[in-house]
Every structure is written in structure tokens, then in C-alpha cells.
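Look over this record as teaching material.
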Amino acid sequence: MGHSLKSIFIFGFSSLPIIYLIRTGVIELLPNTWVNILWGLALLTLWNEVHFYVVHRIMHLKPMMQHIHYIHHRSTVPTVYSVYSFHWLEAFLLSTVPLTIVPFIPFSIVAVFLYPTVSILLNFAGHCNYRFGDGKGDSWRLFGTAHHEHHSKGRKNYGFALNLLDKLFSKPTK
């Protein structure tokens, strides 16, 4: 519970650098049209897949796992209560998704500040321990199935909601 509260605090304040960069003119904003909002949410979701995959792979390096990521893996069966159970450093790294892209690509401000809601909904889906879809095959598994296997085995399925990057960068199993 303590780790979750620290993580929520960190995620809550992660928008402050974005607000600062907007006020200083570093970040260019697009108009708040439906197209810009939906495009922004889609792009932020795809960027989150890349960002999360890289951070998560780093977290599985031996020193990081021993001192930081083990906290999240205490939940061998993921639940919605384990969504925010992170070491503060991991929470900080995961909270930087928008900050690592909005200075370089203009977004609607509504998309930027609505994205955390989309992210937490996807995160709940990944930790709800429910098999989405028909459960047959493993080529495009989403959410709960792949993440449950990750928590129980501690390897593979490093992606956030999709397993596309796992398919591209993981060694084939025999």
C-alpha cells in the first residue's frame, strides 16, 4: 500500500514539467479538435508501448530487479491492487511517457491530460487477471493473459498492452 501511495503521488505530479514547458513555449500545442484529441490519444498509447517496453526490459536487468522491480513482482498473480505497486524510481520512469514525446511532437492539451486516464484503464485491464478474447493462440494476445504469464514466470511479455515488441525483440523459444 505504501509503494502504491508513493507511485500515485509521483504520477500525480508528473504533469508539472509539462505545464512548465507549455508556459515557457517549449511545447507546441494543437487545437482541441476531436481529430487532434483522438490522434493524440492513439499516438500516446503507441508511444507508451515503446516507452514501457524499454523501461520494463531495463527493470528486468539483474541489479534493477534485485533492488527496484522486485516490489512490483511481489504480486505473482496480478490484480488491480498491484497496478501502482512500484518502487519510487520505477514509478518516476514510467510517469515520463508524455514528457518524452510532447516536446518533439505537437499534441492537443486535452489529449495530453486525458491520456493518464486511458493509461490507467489499460493498466487495470492488464492487471485484472482476466483473459480477453478467445484465448486461442498467442500471436496477438492483449492485456491480462500475457501480463499474468509475465508476473507468474518473471520473463517475456514485457509489453504494456500488446505483445508486438516482445515478438520483434525477444529470442524465439524452442
Summary: Strands lie at 29-30, 107-108. The mean pLDDT is 81.
